[in-house]
């Protein structure tokens, strides 16, 4: 009987010892979680979808932010869409973020429609002008001269402005400018960024007249000698900023991605350097990768506070 009591006592001590070890392990695990949480925001949901329009600016910036997010552990999918679909996807939550919102002027119609379902993280690029652009050898300097057919600019261009995709905010603004300046004889030809650039390149090589809907930053502004036509009635407004927008709930679902997107800011020279590399034939993913590798301090700034 005495032996049985002794065995029970030893068993109780053993159980208490094991429980103490387990509780200590749990406490250390909880402390580890607490400590790691203090180191920075965690990934959360790792799958991130970013829609973009295939304009030179957005092609470059979307691939760069994709590379930055993937370097910290996210799985990023880029989806090429038109402007309207880009806003719809982020607003309805089928996509997570976009770095292609031209505000407050160019995309105002989309912003007014969807702003209640979007989170504006502010500009990644500041003061990005857009408007009607011509090669420097074209003899007109103002949109008003288009109506006057100064220097036979109408005949020289077949009375056509070469534009980008029809859903773009800049196309809407160009249509408004045509009404405001009374360009009744003119047409706006919708194409794409790539097709517009091809037409511009052909015209410059032949030194022909051409008017395009262009913006800065853009690789073409570095590669060619171009000028914006003056807009005395300010239909195109002051220069936009290029904003980053996210869906509601991203901060809770993927806090580290939200922080990186919020801290994503660079200058025109950075963006143009990526665009030029892509224009020269570098694959966009490779161009983005090389940019991140060459700009470590900028990458650290974007990912500050992220574990």
UniProtKB/TrEMBL annotation:
For this record, the Gene Ontology CC terms, alphabetical, are:
ATP-binding cassette (ABC) transporter complex
InterPro entries on file: ABC_Gly_betaine_transp_sub-bd
GO biological process terms held by the UniProt record:
choline transport; glycine betaine transport
Q: Does the keyword Membrane apply?
A: yes
Q: Any idea where the ABC-type glycine betaine transport system substrate-binding domain is? A: 46-293
Q: Looking at the record's lineage, which domain of life comes first?
A: Bacteria
Enumerate the Gene3D superfamilies for this protein. Dipeptide-binding Protein, Domain 3 (3.10.105.10), Glycine betaine-binding periplasmic protein, domain 2 (3.40.190.100)
What CDD domains does the record point to? PBP2_OpuAC_like
Q: Which GO terms describe its molecular function?
A: amine transmembrane transporter activity; carnitine transmembrane transporter activity
* Protein name according to UniProt: Glycine betaine/carnitine transport binding protein GbuC
The protein's gene is named: gbuC_1
